[in-house]
């Protein structure tokens, strides 16, 4: 399927490179676990089963975790109407439409391909944004679906999740099995944890780099589709400021899904720590949108 969203070859190249590197890492990780645990069938079956579940049910998992609910046209006529118009303009299948009843102003897209995807917005976002700002955010989210980077980031995140689970399992296994293990078992456990931590760290950095770039790509594509980069910039500025006023406890709950959000739940971080952020800085995003606005000329702010 080819939509009218402008293709981004640099995004495609980055996705392919990231998947290739993570694929090599994943094969090495599984091989290391097979050697260390001496159980080919167990490791392969568990790894394959979890990857299958992550890919096929990513949309349902994300909606459940964020308390999102699929809504009909009758329940959310305005939201459906905006997505209908954007999908027609982009010549792409319409995703399912969902709403999460939380005051945190945000949106995300998820799903394994454009024919099986969901765009979810929070009630906090709907309450705060003007119609043209909401359109800009939804165009941004739809570009994630059209570029298929939603599926890529979902699969890419899987390896880190598995590595984290192995470390957690090993920790609790050691905690509750203390005193009943010999030195060989403890050495084996330490090696499994060491390999898992290394895999998690490498996958973490690779995924964050891809995530930051795909947000810039979605900003570009969304702004070009609507022809109103200033509306998207306005939404970014407004939501970033409003999220800072949401209770930290609520934001920490949502932090695990930062890579999927329109704007990060806990905000971008400065300096060297930006390397570990899921999103580029607000300044980077606004600067790019200003350049797009200049390219489009006076018509950029006057489209209806």
From TrEMBL:
Annotated NCBIfam families: PRK02391.1
Record membrane topology: Multi-pass membrane protein
Name used for this protein in its record: Protease HtpX homolog
Chief place of localization: membrane
Organism annotation: Streptomyces sulfonofaciens
Domain of life: Bacteria
Family: Belongs to the peptidase M48B family.
HAMAP family attached to this UniProt entry: Pept_M48_protease_HtpX
Enzyme category, top tier: hydrolase
The entry's keywords: Cell membrane, Hydrolase, Membrane, Metal-binding, Metalloprotease, Protease, Transmembrane, Transmembrane helix, Zinc
Cofactor binding, note field: Binds 1 zinc ion per subunit.
Annotated ranges, domain Peptidase M48: 75-291
Localization: Cell membrane
Gene from which the chain derives: htpX1
EC code: 3.4.24.-
GO BP term, pick one: proteolysis
């Amino acid at each position: 399927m080819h939509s009218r969203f402008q293709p981004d070859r640099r995004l495609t190249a980055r996705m392919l490179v990231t998947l290739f590197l993570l694929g090599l890492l994943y094969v090495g990780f599984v091989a290391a676990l097979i050697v260390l645990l001496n159980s080919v069938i167990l490791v392969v079956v568990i790894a394959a089963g979890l990857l299958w579940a992550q890919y096929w049910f990513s949309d349902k998992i994300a909606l459940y975790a964020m308390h999102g609910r699929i809504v009909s046209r009758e329940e959310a006529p305005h939201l459906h109407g905006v997505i209908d118009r954007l999908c027609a303009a982009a010549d792409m299948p319409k995703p399912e439409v969902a709403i999460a009843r939380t005051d945190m102003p945000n949106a995300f897209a998820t799903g394994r391909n454009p024919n099986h995807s969901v765009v979810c917005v929070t009630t906090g976002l709907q309450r705060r944004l003007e119609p043209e700002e909401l359109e800009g955010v939804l165009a941004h989210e739809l570009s994630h679906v059209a570029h298929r980077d939603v599926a890529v980031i979902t699969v890419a995140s899987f390896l880190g999740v598995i590595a984290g689970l192995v470390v957690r399992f090993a920790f609790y296994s050691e905690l509750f099995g203390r005193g009943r293990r010999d030195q060989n078992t403890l050495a084996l456990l330490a090696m499994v944890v060491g390999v898992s931590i290394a895999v998690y760290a490498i996958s973490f950095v690779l995924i964050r780099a891809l995530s930051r770039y795909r947000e810039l790509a979605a900003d570009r594509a969304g702004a070009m589709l609507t022809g109103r980069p200033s509306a998207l910039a306005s939404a970014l500025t407004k939501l970033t400021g409003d999220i800072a006023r949401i209770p930290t406890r609520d934001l920490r709950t949502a932090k695990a899904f930062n890579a999927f959000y329109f704007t990060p739940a806990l905000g971008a971080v400065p300096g060297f720590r930006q390397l570990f952020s899921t999103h580029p800085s607000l300044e980077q995003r606004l600067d790019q949108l200003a350049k797009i606005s200049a390219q489009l000329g006076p018509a950029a702010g006057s489209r209806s």
